[in-house]
């Protein structure tokens, strides 16, 4: 056992680990630089009403236009910004951009119910300046707070549930809507769901992928939709890619949907669009079997 421990202690000084610490620090500097030089962009993905197929809003999703590596998705840098705290200025910037873009779209569409969804990480949620950042973004853009939805994951409950509930209440008092993102993947109990007082449940893509082909996934989604309805919550299905999924979700009573079927996240266009998918009569080819080595 001593030998084992010795090895672990030695492992602390492995060159690879040293390199990874340096790597983290370097990436942090790079992200700071990117913020200062406006290398981040916000893309928007349509959210549609599953019954009428009408576009009802968009979700803001951040990207990094990296000078050497091209357009990077959040999975490439969000974790680093959370550890380093840079998610606070980055998140504030996304919030401001999204609110301003919402204001432009509402004016050009003459539709003041059009909504904007913005993601918040647990770190942002714990930041004491969050409420004032949100209030400022709304005021500066001159939008109605009800048109802004903040998306949170169940991870906000990990630390201090009472503190989280208090923050949620303060946000609600601003008039913004609240959504639980990736619902079903965390472990909030039904009891929390009642206490949380959110408005929307976004059902995670992992349940949507097989909703039209797997009886268990269908049953789970149906149960979530029914529970949400009983609690007077809206449901949004994430990651709809096929007509079969859309049709099944509509039958199950899910309110809204998002996914590549309706539109991928894209830079702001003069007016956001979503493709209105027609029923497909030709089925896509089945996936290739895995190659045998
Ligand atoms: P999310 O909030 O659950 O966003 C949905 C993700 O699913 C997005 O990935 C979106 O591009 C992707 N998606 C949408 N429809 C489909 C589909 O039909 N099929 C598939 N395969 N994927 C689909 P993205 O943009 O890479 O974002 C990943 C996550 O990064 C987001 O998950 C969110 O948690 C986080 N994120 C994005 N922008 C921000 C931000 O501004 N602030 C914070 N704190 N987190 C962000
Ligand atoms: Mg989201
Ligand atoms: Mg999600
Ligand atoms: Mg997700």
UniProtKB/TrEMBL annotation:
Q: Where is the GGDEF domain?
A: 1-15
In this chain, the stretch annotated as Disordered covers 263-290
* GO MF term set: cyclic-guanylate-specific phosphodiesterase activity
Q: Which domain of life is it from?
A: Bacteria
EAL domain sequence ranges: 24-279
Q: What is this protein called?
A: EAL domain-containing protein
Q: Which organism is it from?
A: Actinoplanes cyaneus
Range within the parent protein? 11 to 303 of 420
């Amino acid at each position: 056992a001593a030998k084992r421990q010795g090895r672990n202690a030695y492992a602390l000084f492995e060159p690879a680990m040293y390199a990874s610490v340096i790597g983290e620090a370097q990436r942090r500097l790079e992200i700071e630089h990117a913020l200062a030089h406006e290398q981040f962009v916000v893309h928007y993905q349509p959210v549609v009403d599953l019954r009428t197929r009408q576009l009802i809003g968009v979700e803001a999703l951040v990207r990094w236009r990296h000078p050497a590596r091209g357009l990077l998705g959040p999975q490439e840098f969000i974790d680093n910004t959370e550890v380093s705290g840079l998610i606070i200025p980055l998140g504030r910037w996304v919030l401001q951009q999204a609110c301003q873009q919402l204001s432009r779209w509402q004016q050009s569409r003459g539709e003041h119910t059009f909504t904007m969804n913005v993601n918040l990480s647990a770190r942002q949620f714990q930041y004491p300046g969050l409420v004032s950042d949100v209030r400022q973004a709304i005021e500066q853009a001159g939008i109605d707070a009800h048109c802004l939805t903040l998306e949170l994951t169940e991870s906000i409950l990990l630390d201090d549930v009472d503190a989280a509930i208090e923050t949620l209440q303060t946000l609600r008092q601003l008039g913004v809507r609240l959504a639980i993102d990736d619902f079903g993947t965390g472990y909030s109990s039904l009891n929390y769901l009642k206490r949380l007082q959110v408005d929307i449940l976004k059902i995670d893509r992992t349940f949507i992928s097989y909703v039209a082909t797997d009886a268990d996934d269908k049953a789970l989604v149906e149960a979530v939709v029914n529970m949400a309805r009983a609690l007077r919550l809206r449901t949004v299905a994430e990651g709809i890619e096929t007509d079969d999924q859309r049709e099944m979700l509509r039958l199950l009573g899910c309110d809204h949907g998002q996914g590549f079927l309706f539109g991928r996240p894209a830079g702001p266009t003069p007016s956001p669009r979503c493709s209105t998918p027609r029923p497909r009569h030709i089925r896509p080819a089945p996936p290739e079997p895995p190659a045998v080595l």
